Amino acid sequence: MAHKRKSEQLETYLLSVIDGSAEGKWPSVLRVIMAIFSWLFTLIVQTRIQLYKHRIIRGNTLGCQVISVGNLTVGGTGKTPVVEVFARNLQQQGRKVAILSRGYKSKEASFKDKMIQRITTGRIETPPRVVSDGKRLLLDSWTAGDEPYMLATNLPEVAVVVDKDRVKAGKYAIRELGCDTLILDDGFQYLKVGHRLDIALVDSTNPFGYGHLLPRGLLREPMRNIKRAGFIFITKCKEDGAPELKEQLRRLNPVAEISECRHAAKYLKDVFGDTTYPLEKLKGLKVAAVSAIAVPESFESALEAFGAEIVYVRRFADHHRFSQQEIINTINWSAKRGAQAILTTEKDAVRFPFVERRDIPIHYMRVEIEMLSGEEEFMDWIMRICFKTPRDD
Prior knowledge:
With about 400 residues, the protein is α/β, with parallel strands linked by helices. It has 3 domains: about 50 residues, no CATH class; about 220 residues, P-loop containing nucleotide triphosphate hydrolases (Rossmann fold), CATH 3.40.50.300; about 110 residues, Rossmann fold (3-Layer(aba) Sandwich). Helices cover about 35% and strands about 20% of the residues. It has 12 helices and 13 strands. Strands 1, 2, 3, 4, 5, 6, 7, 8, 9, 10, 11, 12 and 13 form a 13-stranded mixed β-sheet that branches. The mean pLDDT is about 90.
């Protein structure tokens, strides 16, 4: 636990150095060092892309539709709801869909299990973890990872398969689950599998990752590489969209379809039950906001927009796995501040351990993608992927 806290503190500090909020001599020195490594990282990234582009390194062809959904920055672009709406639309148009996820911070096979496999089979090659086979939910969030588990819960007729090697996961989904369409979750940089289509997400609140590649900024590759995308989602937009950003992206990619969208809250749901509540419940309600996401400000702003009075805020590092004691401590502190409910995100809710206490209700906010522009183009894309035309309907 102490090691995890130190790791999260270091992550928070480095982010403050990157965004410039950490001031003084040493943060300035660290930014210079980061810039040097950023230049080296850029060289490595661009070399790798060219090796795949010129087929010096060959990607794998899996013999079915492969679509990647990803982004050029690290951190929260709101990717999971986009993957969800994309997979649901493909499934509703008759495709047998599997989402292939790396399963960030999911539980790996134990050393003991690996050694047993080595002794019995002569090699260590674990099969992919099937979170859902498109019929049943098979794993918990601890084993699957929070985002794959959330996708599997919300998409009961879509398979979700987790493995760092998504070539292996894709072959398994085709062979064992009968899938004919694969979605690479966070797959924009995953070049080992050939993509028919690339969908790139751009966060309107921080589109260019502070203008630098890792570690000086948050970019995984230069922003100009968005030219690989066939469809661009600008996420977290305000009601009037993001016209200036859209124009900037159009200059970088003249041919891609561009959709502006926002993450719209739909309802509240009990973290430990099935009861749902309308968003109107938040009006005038004193709440504690608890989250472990990349951009907690957006969640907290949404609560206030619906009339909630935030009396206590507790933020953890992105993907933090909550302990039972942390939840109990949160309940205690929330009660002392006069909170009438504890609110968290859906992504965080799947990582909440069960607690018996019910003196303060704990809800999460269900959020879905709402397109502000480009919806017709998006549906045309879906139809083309499914080899349909409007007349087929």
